[in-house]
Amino acid sequence: MELLQLQYFRKVAELEHITRAAEELRIAQPALSKTISRLEEDLGVPLFDRKGRQIRLNAFGRAYLRRVETALNALEDGRRELEDLAGAEKGRVNLATTTHKCFSDRIGDFLGMHPEIRLQISQAGEQEKRDKLLSGELDLCITFPPIEQPGIEGISFLTEEILLAVPSSHRFAGRSSVRLSEAAGEAFICIQSGNPFREMTDQFCRQAGFEPDIVCEVDEHSAVGHFIRAGVGIAFFPETLVDRIGFPFHVLRIEEPVCRRTYQIAWQKERYLSQAAREFRDFLVQSF
Fold it and tell me: Is residue 218 within 8 Å of 224, Cβ to Cβ?
């Protein structure tokens, strides 16, 4: 049994498709099929159920995959630790976040201080971040709400208020604060359903005793700002984004219920975290 066989098996198990796995691994499909068949011969059991060109990981394969992922992750952790000890690791950190607009200045400051470290930044949904942390594809992720799951650790580093943004001509525009229940019946501009921010703000409205009358759904806060300025409706807006958006609308503090969100930086508990990843994590936490 060879290391390459295990790496190939993990990719085929992930995709459950020989052709796509061969393309991603950049090897010929017949060679990949032969490698998987040889692994199954060595183990004495089939790892996949085959029906025509379709393959599905079976019970043997699922059990074996758990062990293979543990072994490959341990080997990768060992490589990272040795590179840290040898001082050879200049540093690459795989970081995921739902949106990184709030943190672009901090990321820029960190890279200015550590030009030898490369941050590979991607956007991902909450479940995808959890899965990639546990699989080892990510070193760190910035998330809200904080992840509470076995095998994942995190530090909460920023809590911000969620404000109510209204057009400059709105009846609330002369005020500095409002009870959210006063906004019942107003037309709301919201982030699209399925986004954690939307789930959170819908819950705020329920706590205030109403369901929001949603007249417009968008995918970014910058678009929300455009529609507020046009007088389409009112919207929830994160405190840290108000100055960045720069649109001429009015924002109010929400007196009740408490409307806040907390960011967390998370990592996999049992995996080795490189020196570069630890430096970024500590810098981010200390900078807020």
Answer: yes
Distance CA(40)–CA(35), nearest Å, equals: 9
| CA–CA distance, 287 with 192 (Å, rounded to integer) | 31
Average pLDDT of span 49-57: 87
pLDDT at 49 over 80: yes
Match 């806060």 to its residue by tokens: 221
pLDDT surpassing 90 at residue 135: no
pLDDT attached to residue 275:
87
Q: Does CATH place domain 89-154+263-286 in 3.40.190.10?
A: yes
Please give the span between the terminal C-alpha atoms of the chain, in angstroms, as a whole number. 49
Other Cβ atoms within 10 Å of 222 Cβ, number:
14
At 168-226, the pLDDT tens digits run 999 999 999 999 999 999 999 999 998 889 999 999 999 999 999 999 999 888 889 88
Peptide bond into 46 cis (omega under 30): no
Q: How many CB atoms lie within 10 A of CB 140?
A: 24
User: Helices in 149-272 by DSSP H: which ranges?
Assistant: 196-207, 221-229, 242-245
Residue reference for tokens 């046009």: 230
Class in CATH terms, 3-82: mainly alpha
Residue 102 has pLDDT above 80, yes or no: no
**Separation of CA 29 from chain center:** 32
Model pLDDT for residues 221-238, shown as the tens digit of each residue: 888 988 999 999 999 999
**Domain spans in the chain, listed from the N-terminal domain onward:** 3-82, 89-154+263-286, 158-261
DSSP state of 139: S
Q: How far is CA 134 from CA 59, 129, 162, in A?
A: 21, 9, 30
Confidence of residue 88 (pLDDT cuts 50, 70, 90): very low
